[in-house]
Each structure stands twice: as C-alpha cells, then as structure tokens.
Amino acid sequence: MADSNDIKAMKMYQHVDRVYNELNAMGYKDDGPVKIEDLWTFDQWHLLGTPALDILIKKLKLNSTHDVLDAGSGLGGSSRYLAHKTGCRALAVEMQPDVHAVAETLTRRSGLADHVEHAMGDMAELKLVNRQFDVAIAIMMLVHVGLNRKKVIENICKYVKPGGTFYVEEWVKTKDFTDHQKTIIKADGAADPDSVPTSEEYKQMFESAGLVVLEMENMTEAWTVAARERIRLFERSREKFVAIHNEETYEALGHFYKRMNALYVDRCIGGLRIIGRKKD
C-alpha cells in the first residue's frame, strides 16, 4: 500500500488542520464541543458527501445493532455520520497520522466517541484481535493502494462476519489513459495509473476474496456532475475561503479540483458503487 507520504501528493490531504480554521470561522473556539451538523460541509472528502451515506444506510438497512469497519476513513466523517443517523458503532481506520489525529479530535468534540473508535494503520497490514464487523465500507480509498489492492480487499474481508455486507465507492478505469492523464492520476490523484482496475476487475477481486457481489452501479455521470459543481461552488466562495484560510490553500485545492474534473470530463475515469456480502 502507498505510504502516507505518497498519499500527501493529493492536495486535498495537505494542510488538514484547515478544518480548525473552518470551526473558528463558525464561532467555535479552542477545544470545545461542536455540533456534528456543522462538520458535514468539510469532513466528507468523497464526491457525493452525506447523500451517498443516506443511500448506504437505506441499501444496507443500517441500524443501531451494526458494527461498521470504515476502511480508509479520512477525517472520520462517514463513521460519525452513520453513527449519528443510525446509532451504529464504527471503527474508522486511517493511515495518515495527521488526518487520524484530526479525525479523533472531531469525533470527541462532536460527542460521538462512545460510538466511533479510531485506529491508525495500513489496511493491508492491519491486525485486529477478536474483532468482526457486520458491515465494511471503503469509499475512495482503494484507488490509493496500487498493486496491494487485492491484499487490502482480502484483509477487509477477513474482518467481516459471514453473511455480513460491504459497500464500496471507487474510481474505475473506463478506457486507456493517455500519458497526460497518467500524469494527473499519479501527481494529483495519488494513485498508480497502471493499476486502476476496470469494473469487471473489481468484481473479480471481490469474488476471489470470498465476497458475493450483489450490485454494481455506474456512478460516472453523477460523479462528473458533482465534480463540476464542486468547482463552481468553490470558485464562488473564493473570497470567504481565502479569508478563513489563505490564498495558497485556495490555489492548491482549486488546482486539485480542476485536475480531477478533467479526468471525469475525458471519461477515462469513472465512478462505481459496489454492494455485496460475505459468503456464509
């Protein structure tokens, strides 16, 4: 799996302490409690944000009896949202030390530490003792693991109970990449362009790990629209963003958003939702 320094090539993962600037701008100070609803505008790093998690809750019938493994959890936004909405318990696993530290802080400050636990580690090597989960989710994390993807999927599967479910949203390769597109994927997407799977290759990986694929949904159009809208809203909020953060951070994120959008517009990268279960 790529180490945390490689992933830092992705500008979204740089200067993660900017979330504290956001909270300060809302009037939160120091280390006090925060309303979880106030985190949702910036703690969801995947394209479709909380609406995607509402779909997850509905499709998996997630409820307070479930234990969830959130693989590659970023700021922990998905775990907190699912716990807040359903009462489930979650283990949020993130490999980047600074991201992990901020995620733990946000969970504590939002009052969800009794439902959301955090662990730092590489999902390919993670060892948990006597832990099994009803549900495993991986949202925009498998793209970063390169040739270790099969090992990561197998390790996630190991911690899912027989009959348990999994939910994945991920990049897929839809056509051969040009050299320019490969450069964007590697330099801005923190991914190995030569190992990005197709939809069918993903299906084969999951099935070989002992998982039954129940549903595969092409999310490319929705992601393309969302990527374009993200740029529009970001550019419209420039003055406010720069006042809260700085010009350098604005330019870095803007560059990232535009480069990702170019891949969707070129239709070389698409989005895929995969839902399934572990064999009994």
Give a short summary of the structure.
By secondary structure, this protein is α/β, with parallel strands linked by helices. The chain is built from eleven helices and seven strands. Mean pLDDT is 93; it is low at 1-5.
How would you explain this protein's 3D organization?
This protein is α/β, with parallel strands linked by helices. Helix content is 42%, strand content 20%. It contains eleven helices and seven strands. α3 (49-60) crosses α4, α9 (220-236) runs antiparallel to α11 and α10 crosses α11 (247-265). The longest helix is centred in the last third of the chain and has 19 residues, at 247-265.
Give the topology string: H per helix, E per strand: HHHEHEHEEHEHHEHHHE
Gyration radius over CA: 18 Å
* Class inferred from helices and paired strands: alpha/beta
Mean pLDDT across every amino acid position: 93
Number-wise, the strands total 7
Separation of the first and last Cα atoms: 29 Å
Numbering strands along the chain, what is their spatial order in the largest sheet? 3-2-1-4-5-7-6
Q: Which of globular, elongated, flat, extended, rod-shaped describes the shape?
A: globular
The biggest sheet amounts to: 7 strands, mixed
Work out the strand percent.
15-25%
The helical percent reads 40-55%
Unreliable stretches, pLDDT < 50, 5 or more residues?
Answer: 1-5
Q: How many helical elements?
A: 11
